[in-house]
Amino acid sequence: MNCTNWTRELHNWIPLNKHLDNEDWFDPWLEDGIASPEIGSTHLWWEYFAWTNFSRPEYLAKGYAPEYVKRIANTTSNNQKALLDESAQIVEYNSSSVLAQAYYRAITDVYTAWRASFSALLPSIYEENDSQTGDRKLTVRIKNLAPEKAENVWCKLEITGAPDACLGGYGGEYYCGDIPSKGEAVIADRWILKNTADCSGKIAASLEVRGNFSKTPDSGRAYIIKEISPQEVKDPLPSWNNCPAKKAILNFVANATNKSNPHYVVPEERIATFDNDGTLWCEKPDYVQFLFMIDRVGDLAPQHPEWKTEEPFSSILSGKRLSSRNFSLDESLAIALATCSNMTVDHYTVLVRDWLNSTKHPRFGRPYSGCTYRPMLELLNYLRANGFKIYIVTGGGVDFVRAFSDSVYGIPPAQVIGSSPRYQFADHNRNSSILKLPEIWSIGEAQGKPINIQLFIGHRPVFAYGNSDGDIQMLQFATGGDQQGMGILNHHDDSGREYAYDRESLVGKLDRGLEMAQEWDWQVVSMKNDWKEVF
Known about the structure:
Elements: H1 4-13, E1 30-31, E2 34-35, H2 43-53, H3 57-60, H4 66-73, H5 78-90, H6 98-116, E3 121-129, E4 136-144, E5 150-160, E6 167-169, E7 173-179, E8 184-193, E9 203-212, E10 221-228, H7 244-256, E11 271-274, H8 288-300, H9 313-318, H10 329-340, E12 343-344, H11 345-358, H12 374-385, E13 389-397, H13 398-402, H14 405-409, E14 416-428, E15 431-442, H15 448-456, E16 463-466, H16 472-479, E17 486-491, H17 512-520, E18 523-526
Parallel strand pairs: 11-13, 11-16, 13-14, 16-17, 17-18
Antiparallel strand pairs: 1-2, 3-4, 4-8, 5-7, 5-9, 6-8, 9-10, 12-15, 14-15
């Protein structure tokens, strides 16, 4: 069997792929859609041969419109017919011949790939790494090389070599609309390859494009396959060990952001709520805000000589009681109102920031803002990168946390909810401000947390994270009923790197929460075993 003529023709055709971007649009052998018999190429006869002999649908779906090919075939020269007849004998189908079948499949596969490459629609796929999540964003470009617009263009992207869940974003088909002559459509931020272990191997992305032309002799179909090289999986939570809680977080976020998953959460409902003390930063040896208030008592004492004999202030000034666990709730509130009210919110914010910048943790020797938990900061970034809106829901004073939430956690003050005083609007010589009054309006602890969430957010969170029994109701609100939310509790069990406390502690007590976690399917994070680093 002599394949010389067919091989020579094939070698003549393949290099023409390099010219797809030139002015000859999709077919170098055609001028203004009219074939010239004098050109002497047999490619149109091959097209006719494919149309008449290769009856399987998968080979007829791409390339030229069959009606156009048949018309051209009837007008070509006798020399081209003779060459086609010679070539056809090479691939004459014989069901009893394994060799003939092998030639048949090889030629049809190669020819179909070549034929599709001359579509007037030229697609391409580009990948870009997301520095935050490690995901790979896939951008599709579709050029229209025809002398007329392509109408009603659709594209469909699929992946092989990895689970379907690896293709995040919006997946599936996308309507591109019309593409003008010599123009292009760019589809970005739609398809994402997730950064997980299952998606880190060698993956092939296939893109099918289809559209319509009014005059151009083209079926308006194109198909490409792009191999996406393996990449090292970037761990979005590098300070976490491979513990059940970490796996549960990654699975939850992957499902919540995958539109094809039954647990997909639309972006506007991706609400995550976090407690502050003991959840995002260290709350020992005492609540940071209480330590601030103790220092404020000393600063204000010269203006209040009565405090020398008036409790609870006299005990603070004498040094007898300096810990929050030694004061009742009413006494703590009295200290808060005396030290944190009768001033504007702006002035109070300056006081808090100055104190945080000048005061260090007695054990760790670093500012309290430096006592934030590194694994939690990573989690905040990971959730943000996946479209979650994060709120701090604290039992502490809302204005205290708002003073540093943006600089320390990247959470704007508007997304901080907490215990709050009554406020009053004031205006003096067109200088308006908000005053903090010496009255309590809301206590944002325990059941106050879901109530404040409803009041200020108006929607249940799907992700809630705390560390104490005061966070139970917030976790119940996120995971109760038909809600497919996630609840997590930090368990402080690392006396070496931080502190160990739970059931008996008066600061950050975690007792009922440990009992309820199994019943409610909450994750309990062992700070000793589950975190590689604390700060």
